[in-house]
Design brief:
single chain; alpha+beta; Beta Polymerase, domain 2; 5-stranded mixed β-sheet
Length: 193
């Protein structure tokens, strides 16, 4: 069901000329280790004021909007929560206005999912999102992405994490370096064992 839904999302957003990238667990499935995920997160190159255009695309996808006042909810949270009615799969459309998100959307890769090309965040941007989230599951996801994509641009990752660290006063760079070190140890163990 996820594959069909991702195809539908990709087609509808392309038809409405809405730049986007799939992030979160679905992006991890593309670049990292298989894992269970119950939802789809999509970042849009749209401001909250452009919610009506997104609602039009959501209606074409036949997704149910989960809030009574989408305009008000999106203006407060930058998220439009929806659900595919037959499967119950949640799809969150995340509005973005930051330079980082816009750049990440431009860097997204077209990945064939079923019969459609779907824009998925680049591995570096998946890692940045996961390091910032910082939950144990996110850090494990990061290790999986690093193991399967050893040629990621670590300087790009460090540069953006450094910017976020300054802005949010969080130890993102230290967290990334620790995950990088753990991933290297895991890789050595896999190669040696």
């Amino acid at each position: 069901m996820f594959q069909e839904l991702l195809e539908k999302i990709g087609r509808a957003l392309e038809a409405h000329d809405i730049a986007y990238m799939v992030i979160g667990g679905q992006a991890v499935l593309v670049y990292g280790e298989p894992r269970l995920t119950k939802d789809i997160d999509v970042t849009l190159a749209k401001e909250p004021e452009e919610v009506e255009e997104v609602i039009e695309a959501v209606n074409k996808m036949r997704l149910d909007i989960l809030v009574d006042d989408p305009d008000g909810f999106v203006s407060q949270t930058y998220v439009l929560p929806t659900q595919e009615p037959s499967s119950g799969i949640r799809v969150d459309f995340i509005f973005s206005s930051s330079d980082y998100e816009r750049q990440a959307i431009r860097r997204a890769r077209s990945v064939r999912i079923g019969k459609a090309l779907v824009r998925v965040a680049a591995p570096e941007d998946v890692i940045i999102h996961k390091i910032i989230a910082g939950r144990p599951r996110d850090l494990e996801d990061t290790k999986g992405v690093l193991l399967k994509n050893p040629d990621v641009d670590t300087e790009y990752i460090r540069r953006w994490l450094g910017n976020f660290e300054q802005a949010l006063s969080q130890p993102f760079l230290r967290r990334f370096e620790e995950v990088l070190k753990q991933t290297q140890k895991r890789k050595e163990n896999l190669e040696g064992g």
